[in-house]
Amino acid sequence: MKVAVASVDGVSISHHFGRSQCFIVFDVQGTEIGAPEVRPNTYTAHARGECDGAQGHHDQPHSHASIVAALQDCSAVLCYGMGWRAAEDLSRNGIKPFVIDGVVSPQEAVQQFVNGRLKPASGFCGCH
Fold it and tell me: 4-40 pLDDT, tens per residue?
């Protein structure tokens, strides 16, 4: 299975899923975590700079279809915070969103996921 970690720079974990500049994707086989692949985030409006300064942006409906499509081969997405709409859209499409507790590396976050120590992001937003 593949697990994506939202990242601001390809090294550290993003505090906001939609603002991540890339996703670090790990191939997980049982308890073994494979080498990471970094995928640029050109899919979310935040990452493209389309939401900067937009008052009430989160009150407006917007689609997460492009990010869901970009991560369709992943079983889970890990980050420090995620809006409820993104969490719902990912979940609805078979990608389970999880929230990371504490400051850890992307590899450590995936290890927490493998060990069942992360909480689902559904209905949660640690970014606002």
Answer: 999 999 999 999 898 899 999 999 999 999 999 999 9
Which pTM value belongs to this model? 0.84
Output the six-digit token pair for 32.
Answer: 């073994």
What would the DSSP string read from start to end of 17-74? GGG-SEEEEEEEETTEE---EEEE--SSTTTTTSSTT-TTGGGS----HHHHHHTTT-
Is-contact 99 58, C-beta < 8 A?
no
Domain coordinates in residue numbering, the chain: 2-51+62-120
End-to-end C-alpha distance for the chain, whole angstroms: 30
Structure-token pair, residue 111? 């290890």
Confirm if 70 and 47 have CB atoms less than 8 A apart. no
Residue 11: name the closest of 109, 120, 98 by CA. Answer: 109
Domain 2-51+62-120 bears CATH identifier 3.30.420.130: yes
